[in-house]
Amino acid sequence: FISQPAISLAIKELEKYYGVKLFERVSRKLFLTDAGQVVYTYAAKIFSLLDGLNHCLLYTSPSPRDSTSSR
Fold this sequence. Notes:
Layout: H1 4-18, E1 23-26, E2 29-32, H2 34-60
Antiparallel strand pairs: 1-2
């Protein structure tokens, strides 16, 4: 769980670091800017890679108890 203020702060920090706006507010709605869409695309790839890593390590690798130590 992450709080809304923490998300807002992280977005502001990204915007400041890269010097771009990630969202545009129109009336009471938020829309991704072009830069925001790029960040979203990369974030989706990163989360997909993390899911693959988790699956690989948790479900396909032997557990430490299954391996024998050479010590």
